[in-house]
Task: structure prediction
Amino acid sequence: MQLPLSQHDSDMLPDLATMSAEDRAAYYETAFTRDVPITMIAVPEACNVFPELAEEIVAAYVEHTTFIFKIWVNHDAAANRFYTDNNWARDCGKLVFSPKTKRYLRKVETHKVLYRNIRFEIGTPFRALAHFTLEVRPCKLPNILPCVDVLLDDLTHEHPRLMAYLRHEVVDDIRDADPTNGKEGMNFKDLEELANMFFVVRPSWGPRGVWMSRHENEGYIAGMHSDAGCIRR
Result:
């Protein structure tokens, strides 16, 4: 699926070829400032209309669009507890999408695309629990690391242990580090490394009481496996 430059059909596009670079930049910012699930990432239709500007258009598309990735966290939403000792947990702390989408993103990666606006949808295969948004603002001064703004949005207000972990562990770690590794944005490898932070190994701020034992998990995990057909990546 190709995404047009704006909400309008491609024949509604202005004549970008006759516009100044400044006017095009202003138009891209207006047209591309929106949220797009990563499963719908595609070359903008404007690239077909103005192939001579394709590189510029794609760069603007990636710069201004907020791309949404799903990540499953090893947190039992019903019991409000974490777990690590079952087979289902192995799918947590990873970017969730189909093999086809992953192949496409790997292809995009060869063009050295850097994402500046990312939203992680944190939750389970059945429910979103939080939005975790990162915005990279490159510094115009030489040898200065970019500023990375981090915003955590609690979608349910029902999972205080998970939110405490995200605030005290993930948010603080990202603010203390540089998830871009000195670049003007994040590449696919950077995003995969960030996703690993959403696999809770052991919260340093909490007691062992937040953990579910294997016995406590048995009934719940058995139910999960019986409904495995409804899990989609």
